[in-house]
Amino acid sequence: MKQNLLSVLDLSVVDLERLMADAARLKTERAEGCCPPLLAGRSLGMIFEKPSTRTRVSFEVGMFELGGHALHLNQGDMQLRRGEAIADTARVLSRYVSAVMIRAYSHATIEEFAAHSTVPVINGLSDLEHPCQILADIFTIRERFGRTDGLVAAWIGDGNNVCNSLVLSAGMTGMEVRIATPTAYAPDPAIIERGRAEGGQIVCARTPEEAVEEADVIFTDTWVSMGSEGEEQARREAFVGYCIDDRLVARATDRAIVMHCLPAHRGEEITDAVLDGPRSAVWDEAENRLHVQKAVLMNLLATFDERTFQQMLE
Ligand code: CP
Ligand code: NVA
Question: 97 and which of 43, 62, 83, 205 could share a cystine (Cβ 3.0–4.6 Å)?
């Protein structure tokens, strides 16, 4: 593994397989009441510039279950709010904690932090990517289908951070990714290009109907991501026709599942009937954040320890 997880592209196929296997083992062990304290004495700093329910709770509970500790650091309560440099914050936190997870508005902030941190850094969502989310999604799809290779995933809605991570992971998962977004909300062409360069089969569909035709997995997300609140009205108008409802789901395969990273805006990007219906995988998807992130923490810290040990020997 690399030292940081800032993008899904920081992972090799071997890393992905390892994370999936470890997450599956941790999930089974937890169900059996067994949580080995593999990260005893370790602390995770969690910096949040934006709100969070799943990311905060799953990382915090994950560290607790692994015998470690997590610190919730609201950016507004830190000296960052008063102008302390992100680089200085990284230098100092590296002296206290074993790893840092950051949720930031700008991906550049996370990169800047990582450049000055001497401990592993995890992207807990930026404007560019949400790697922890897509890892949990891949895990959930594998639980349901036993594989990702050869499946068709349709992304309907906003071409945002979660969509970008899905596109960039397509080469690793072997899923065909079809994207249907209003033109103004399509992913950056550079992301599509990179996804293809990484071996991903990415199709830009003309309509949601075309994208979901015989799809195995249907993804959506809010039309108004954190930070886009001022655009609410324009977005609601642009996304008319992009709601995941029974009519759209009926075009997919009989085994198709519906995914949403949550929080959902019921009646906007997804109907109650779909979210609460038999095709919805969203509650397992949310739970799996916990198991997958525990695997991420274990593997990043194991790699870091190994590297530190090697440096001591040199
Ligand atoms: N899916 C997700 O990251 O949820 P939160 O914003 O609640 O962390
Ligand atoms: N695209 C959403 C994801 C929330 C978990 C956002 O950035 O707000």
Answer: 43
- Residue 269: give the domain boundaries: 136-282
CATH code at 256? 3.40.50.1370
Counting ligands in written order, which one lies closest to the CA of residue 262? 1
Find the residues whose C-beta lies inside 6 A of ligand 2: 125, 160-162, 221-222, 225-226, 261
Cα–Cα dist 232/93, whole Å? 36
Ligand 1 centroid from CA 52, angstroms: 5
Does any ligand 1 atom lie closer than 6 A to the CB of residue 204?
no
What pTM, to 2 d.p., does this model score? 0.98
Q: Which string of b and e fits 23-53 if b means at least 16 CB within 10 Å?
A: bbebbeeeeeeeeeebbeebbbbbbbbeebe
Tens of pLDDT, residue by residue over 160-206, are: 999 999 999 999 999 999 999 999 999 999 999 999 999 999 999 99
Asked if residue 241 and residue 121 are part of one domain, the reply reads no
Residue 146 sits in the same domain as residue 121 = no
Specify whether 260 is located in the same domain as 153: yes
Domain count, the chain: 2
Count CB neighbours of 120 within 10 A.
25
Q: For 120-147, how does the pLDDT look when each residue is reduced to its tens digit (9 = 90+)?
A: 999 999 999 999 999 999 999 999 999 9
